[in-house]
């Protein structure tokens, strides 16, 4: 059991999650934004062209890479059905109670026959801190170089990452996409589900990368 536990720990690349920042074992840091979606198909042709042009401009303004991560989950409809069941005794009209029961039955049948999926859209913003080695040269915190872990150094790098996240947020806002930064608890939940996909019924993550500049 000990060997299996150790092997699992070695597989997970995370070292820490703190102050809304994910710290990897190789020293890299990243911030993750949860983004809203745009119903592109309902836009006019001119609006679609404008959105694509603004998105291209946004990517060209970046001088660092970002990653888009899409997480699909089968929608759990039971909480909604529970609310409907609670409302049934509150109906004064017999016809309304019958219609409510029929509606509940319809929803249960529908989600059984059709996979109703919810999608979450994430933008991963990376930052690789730099450190000065003993010979005076600048080197990346990769390989055998041990990253600085003191609070002052972390705060400096966190602010640099925050500036990148702000640029991404502003660029996406211009094309109508709203974003929020995932905080520690949400980050822990996200990575737990990434490394334990069996715990998410119907989970189907998709991911892609984009580079600015």
Essential attributes:
213 residues; alpha+beta; 7-stranded antiparallel beta sheet; two-stranded antiparallel sheet; 6 helices; extended
Mean pLDDT: 80
The overall strand count is 9
Overall 3D form:
extended
Task: Count helical runs.
Answer: 6
SSE sequence, one letter per element? HEEEHEHHEEEHEHE
Span of the ends, CA to CA: 48 Å
- Structural category: alpha+beta
Please report which band the strand proportion falls in: under 5%, 5-15%, 15-25%, 25-35%, 35-45% or over 45%.
Answer: 15-25%
Q: The biggest beta sheet, please?
A: 7 strands, antiparallel
- Percent helix range: 40-55%
> Cα-atom Rg, whole angstroms?
23 Å
Query: Which parts are unreliable, with pLDDT below 50 for 5 consecutive residues or more?
Result: 132-145, 201-205
Tell me what you see in this structure:
By secondary structure, the chain is of the alpha+beta class. The chain has a domain at 12-64 and 116-211. 43% of the residues lie in helices and 24% in strands. It contains six helices and nine strands; from the N terminus they run αβββαβααβββαβαβ. The chain has helices at residues 2-11, 45-61, 78-87, 94-113, 151-173, 184-195, and strands at 14-18, 21-24, 29-35, 65-74, 117-127, 130-132, 138-140, 179-181, 206-211. The strands form two sheets. Strands 1, 2, 3, 4, 5, 8 and 9 form a seven-stranded antiparallel sheet that branches. Strand 6 and strand 7 (138-140) form a beta hairpin. The chain is extended, with a radius of gyration of 23 Å.
